[in-house]
Design a protein that fits this description.
alpha/beta; Nucleotidyltransferase, domain 5
């Protein structure tokens, strides 16, 4: 979900820029089963591919990939709100999250 209602699943391969007036936030989650933790990260880029910011966050004790990706998305939404960014496109490789958000859940 985005502030403009866009969610997309990226093609495997090269990053594709958003429209000229859009900021794309790529999010991802990762699980460390050995240490019983997880984390998420996000990178914000403009239409020229210029990195506007990046952030990483730890989610101790989580081990469900869907929950980790969902928490990363929520953190990304909060992050963009705090920065006052508008016209945002969020991109994730978590197909379950994309499907759920696209269906309005």
């Amino acid at each position: 979900m985005s502030q403009r209602g866009q969610v997309s699943v990226p093609n495997v391969g090269q990053w594709k820029p958003p429209g000229a007036e859009t900021i794309k936030i790529n999010i991802d989650g990762s699980i460390d089963a050995h240490n019983h933790g997880a984390g998420g990260g996000m990178v914000a880029r403009d239409g020229d591919g210029m990195v506007l910011g990046a952030m990483a966050i730890s989610f101790p004790g989580l081990h469900d990939p869907f929950i980790v990706e969902s928490k990363a998305l929520l953190c990304a939404i909060e992050w963009t709100t705090q920065r006052g960014w508008n016209n945002i496109c969020f991109e994730s490789d978590c197909s379950i999250l994309i499907t759920e958000m696209s269906n309005g859940h």
